[in-house]
Structures are given as C-alpha cells and as structure tokens.
Amino acid sequence: MLDKSWLSQAAITLTLSALSLFPSSAKAQVSVSPLIIESKAERGQAQAMITVTNTSNAPTRVRVYAEPFTYNRDSGFEILSSTPTDLTKYLQFSPRELTIKPGESRRVRLISRLAPNLPDGEYRAVIFNESLNETKNSEGNSVALVARIGVTFYVRKGDIAPKLAVSGASFNQAQKQIQLLVTNSGQATARPGVNWTLKRGETVVKTGKLDPASVVPESDRNLLLNYPSKDDPALTPGEYQLSGDLSWGDDRNASKLPFDVNITIPIITHSADNRQIIPGNRR
C-alpha cells in the first residue's frame, strides 16, 4: 500500500533541483511525477507508478534505469556504487525504454520484492528518466542531448520510523550562510521543514522558513537556511541564538521538534590576494 504523504508537489523543490540534470536546450523535453514515493512493504512487496509526459513538440525517447543513493552531510544528493540500503537489487520496472509523442504521457510501473531474509529497515533507489534527443549546433552538426530527472523511491520493511535531533548550527564559509545540523538516528528517512528565528541578545535579526529536505537514517545533514542571501547585509561577527522547530510527516502522523542553539559568526579578514582568512583557523 502506498503512503501518499510524500507525493505532494510542495515537498519536492529540493529533490527536483538535486536530481534534474539537463542542458538548457533540453530542459523542457519531459516532466515526471511524482518525484518522491514512499511505500511500506507488505509481505515483502511494494508497488508504485510514475508518469512521464513529453512537453516538447517532437517525439521523445526515454530510457529508465535505477541507482542506489544517499544524502551527504554537506553536498546533498549522492549516487552510490553499493550500499546495504540498495533497493535496485530487488526492483523491477516496465517499460525500460519508451517513445512518447508530443503532449502525451506514459506510465512506468515499479515493483519491489524484498528478500525474506533482509533485516527490517529502509531500502532506497533513484529511478532516472533519461530523455535522448538530437539537435543541430551552430555549425549545423547533429548533437545528442541527454536530460534526466530522478524519482526517489523509499521502501520500508518492518515497523520503523525516523528519529530527528538538532545537533547544532554553524556558519558555512563557502556559502557564507548559516546552516543547521540535523541528525536522524532512526531507521527511516524524514523530510523536515524548518521555521527559524535568529536573535542577538533580545533583538530579532531575521526569521525564515526552509522547504523540506531529506535526512536519511543513521546520518546527519547540514541544512542551509539561505541566510544571509546576496541581498542581505553581512552579519556582524559575534554570538547569536538560533531557535525554531522542525516539522515533518503528514496530517495523520505529523511531528514537530523545537530547537534552540547558539551560533558564532566569525570575524573574516582578507589576505593580500583577497582570500578569506578566519582568525584561529589558519594552518
């Protein structure tokens, strides 16, 4: 039986950007829905369906294939060569290749059959829908364009759940933004959204919201709060307080976790060649 809680389009912004790879000229060839599927295995089996639509004015060929994946602490979505949570070994889908006429849609059926001896836990795969098209370059030569969109498929075996905690906050020097470190010590992925308030003493500096982002089991992930943005003034170095709450799940099984952590905004100086140097972190 499929759990519909993760099929909301409002919850897939980050996944779409992380799993969509295409040159600009191929960007509008296909659309895929849903982009996130979560299912509970019943007697070792789970099923799902994805819809691929040709949004272009020409026939499009699509190849379907699967890879194991995870979400890295700092870099986010990551393809893996192997992992104990690999669903691809137990996943079948049909068709694997299809040609779609302009404006038409085709469905791809997903079926997972977990081995009886597998331990309880979550098994994951990303199903890529790769469109193959040809165009002409500026010199009139034929050029093949490859665009792909990934659907993340989570299958849970047994009575498992996520268990989230906020482990701290820090200032990401590369992105020049505040990030919140979220830990998942449970056995299932959660997609927490974040409501946050940044204060210095009794003064509220900024409030904001962060769209849901995946934190896989037995891992942690730094979630960038997109602050300060390029349009915001730089933060004054010093001590701040970051508070708010994480929220995840659907209306029937909603969870909320408040947090209140301290964060230090460092003093940043520049070297003669304009490289950033953080006092106290020099080698």
Supply database-style keywords.
mainly beta, Immunoglobulin-like, 2 domains, 7-stranded mixed beta sheet, 4-stranded antiparallel beta sheet, 22 strands, disordered C terminus
Which secondary structure elements does this structure contain, and how are they paired or packed?
Layout: E1 2-3, H1 13-19, E2 20-21, E3 30-33, E4 36-40, E5 45-54, E6 60-67, E7 69-72, E8 76-79, E9 91-94, E10 97-100, E11 105-113, E12 121-136, E13 142-157, E14 164-172, E15 177-184, E16 193-200, E17 203-210, E18 219-224, E19 238-248, E20 255-265, E21 269-270, E22 276-277
How would you describe what is shown here?
By secondary structure, this protein is an all-beta fold. It has two domains: 2-157, Immunoglobulin-like; 164-277, Sandwich (Immunoglobulin-like). Helix content is 2%, strand content 54%. Strands 1, 2, 4, 6, 10, 12 and 13 form a seven-stranded mixed sheet that branches. The protein is globular. The termini are far apart.
Q: What's the tally of helices? A: 1
Shape: globular
Helix content: under 10%
Largest sheet: 7 strands, mixed
Q: Which strand-content bin applies to the residues?
A: over 45%
What is the element string, with H for helices and E for strands?
A: EHEEEEEEEEEEEEEEEEEEEEE
CATH architecture descriptor text of the largest domain: Sandwich
Give a quick summary of the entry.
With 283 residues, this protein is mainly beta. 2% of the residues lie in helices and 54% in strands. The protein starts with a strand and ends in a 6-residue tail after the last strand.
